[in-house]
Amino acid sequence: MKLATIRLQDGRTAAVRVDGDQLIHLGAPDVGALLAQPEWRARAAAVTGTTSYAAAGADFATLIPTPSKIVCVGLNYRTHITEMGRDLPEFPTLFAKFADCLIGATDDIARPEETTEFDWEVELAVVIGATVRRAKGADAEAAIAGFTVLNDITCRDWQFRTREWLQGKCWDSSTPVGPYLVTPDELPGGVRPTLAVRCEIDGDTVQSDNTGDLLFDPVALVEYVSTMVRLNPGDLIATGTPGGVGHARKPPRYLRGGEVVVTEIEGIGRLVNRVVNDVSS
Fold it and tell me: Domain 70-277 maps to which CATH number in 3.90.850.10, 3.30.390.80, 3.40.630.40, 3.30.70.260?
């Protein structure tokens, strides 16, 4: 099953199920609200004969507008760990984002005037579908509603001001997520999917890898994070980025504004976002 959150012409949003070239309204305002409903899988699969919209030209909002938490993993692809000159970590490297960071699949990425080192990071994101704490094994697997695409845009100069990364990772309107949640049964490898991931800048491929290179897989991350804190339906875990980021290039390459960034994961979908100067106050 493939789900999305779209913007309607009246300014509202709606959770929808993809059914061929149609998007079926599921009676919830967004995918996060849908996941909070009991037996959401059965409900979403059973909806028929309701309002529908053409998939072509749909305006995709961020998949989960207000997750209770967004947990991100750094240094989780062996290729990226190597290019950043780090040793393989014993435990996941975690940091957080906030809901205000999130944007839709084709929204503009707001480039802050305060940075000169604006970087890209294509990532597979886990979407949580059940409340869990200290989940292990089958419980951790069952807590995974599905997967989506996330671009962990980063202000590198702010990230490395200190040993903590938060200030480089949580800028307003910088992190596209979506367009779809795809349930594990639709993907090779299920809750441990093996999928091609790629990022391109203005048509130039800058990242290309496979989620099979992940050091800590999605189930292991659900187990680890839920040991510390309760995970709720709609929460996101961004699993890390592969090699090819701009900061590790020689010379480094950064987003200056005007570029079109495409981040794509096989079997899930693609984000297409233009980088624009942030003029908000």
Answer: 3.90.850.10
Question: What pLDDT does 67 receive?
Answer: 98
pLDDT of residue 161: 96
pLDDT in tens, 26-36: 999 999 999 99
Q: Are 214 and 94 in contact (CB under 8 A)?
A: no
What spatial distance separates the first Cα and last Cα of the chain, rounded to whole Å?
Answer: 39
Residue bearing the bigger pLDDT, 49 or 59: 59
- Sequential DSSP letters for 22-87: EEEE-SSSSHHHHHTSTTHHHHHHH--SS-EEESTT--BPPSSSS-S-EEEEES-BHHHHHHTT-P
Residues 6+ apart with CB under 8 A from 148: 63, 125, 127, 177, 178, 179, 180, 181, 182, 236, 268, 269
pLDDT of residue 209: 96
Specify whether the CB–CB gap between 18 and 6 falls below 8 A: no
Domain extents in the chain: 2-54, 70-277
- Nearest alpha carbon to residue 148 among 202, 94, 206, 104: 104
At residue 281, the pLDDT reads 65
Measured in residues, the chain has a length of 281
